[in-house]
Design a protein that fits this description.
Layout: E1 3-8, H1 16-23, E2 29-32, E3 41-45, E4 48-52, E5 65-68, E6 73-74, H2 76-88, E7 97-99, E8 103-104, H3 107-120, H4 132-141, H5 153-174, H6 182-196, E9 200-201, H7 203-212, E10 217-220, H8 246-249, E11 258-266, E12 269-271, H9 284-292, E13 305-307, E14 309-310, H10 311-321, E15 325-329, E16 339-348, E17 351-353, H11 360-365, E18 367-374, H12 391-404, E19 408-412, E20 420-422
Parallel strand pairs: 1-10, 1-11, 2-5, 2-10, 5-7, 6-8, 7-9, 11-15, 14-16, 15-19
Antiparallel strand pairs: 3-4, 12-13, 16-17, 16-18, 19-20
Length: 425
Amino acid sequence: MPGTVLVGAQWGDEGKGKITDLLARDFDYVVRFQGGNNAGHTVVHGDKHLALHLVPSGVMYDDVVPVIGNGCVVDPKVLLNEIDTLAESGVSAERLVISSHAQMIMPWHIDLDGASEKNLGTQKIGTTKRGIGPTYQDKAQRTGMRMGDLLDPEYFRERLEAAIASKNILLKDVYGLDTYDVDAVYDEYMGYAKRLGSHIADTVTLLNDAMEAGKNVFFEGAQGTLLDIDHGTYPFVTSSSTTAAGASTGSGVGMKWINRVVGITKAYLTRVGSGPFPTELNDEVGELLTTVGAEFGVTTGRRRRCGWFDGVIIKYAARVNGLTDICLTKLDVLDSLETIKICVAYDIDGKRVESLPDSLKDFTNAKPIYEELPGWCEDITGCRKFEDLPANAQAYVKRIEEISGVKVSIVAVGPDRDQTIMRSW
């Protein structure tokens, strides 16, 4: 059973990049199975911190094969810029494999993303405007183009002509935007094909053959559970399956190969973009979490909304993902707090609710019911064993275990690789 899935257990930005970077060395393949360059991971290479948006974190290791799965959407221009940036830092992406079935972000997808978000006004989703949603929309409508189409110039041109004929009408007549010329886009994307063509392959066969041969595969998720298109706080979600089951559909690897699901969660809670957030803090504690935790998006630079840890959400994440392990990150951000709160239930119209509300309206109106725990008020960034943590910090971790019903196997006490407690991994 050589498959391990890593997912965000909150709204994303939980520190998945660091943990993937830490664990990837023990695997033969690292697979990104959903999303596009609307997400970002920060990994460490020597004294440099590199931001990855499309390339899987496994690229940092010479003996790991990084794979972009069929569940992803790929902007070739962004991907090539990322590959070049890595090369400038001494990291080769030569081993990168891209699924021929991964959908391709086209320039009009970005235009439509921004225009649609603008038209929503106060009801805007908070999209990154990278073209992700419109690309998945075309995928569902069966009109999108795949990375493999680049390998057949004649077929690509046919698809391109049909797409531009349709999209130009939408761009011009509905949104009043500039239109696209077939020849210009064709030449641009054929240029991408020259550089990326050797990386495009049948990754379903590649990964299944590898697992049948006893290789270990790590499935790296982007975003977080509550941004899942089916199981998140819809409509304030992303356009892909961010939960653990998405690893199977987004890679073509059967569930029988997956035996471990790791949920990454911060010791507090953050989210980027619009939507309900019961434990959000708009006070000095929220400001402290933002400042000390450096809570700004890797991809967009947007300031993240911060709040207390939400036990209702972690229980939900444990259930819908089938979590076997939790990795708790940024515990050190809480070092200076004398009292720490954990939300254990919601008050919705005077009724105590201990599970995630099915209704977005109820979730929006939910008021957190808190349990208070004493803080530890000391620097824990030097701790390397669980027993080295102050008693109150240990108690906080154990309380999260009790609420979630899942063991906390890894505890991060700082941003660097070595600032990680491998408690029971």
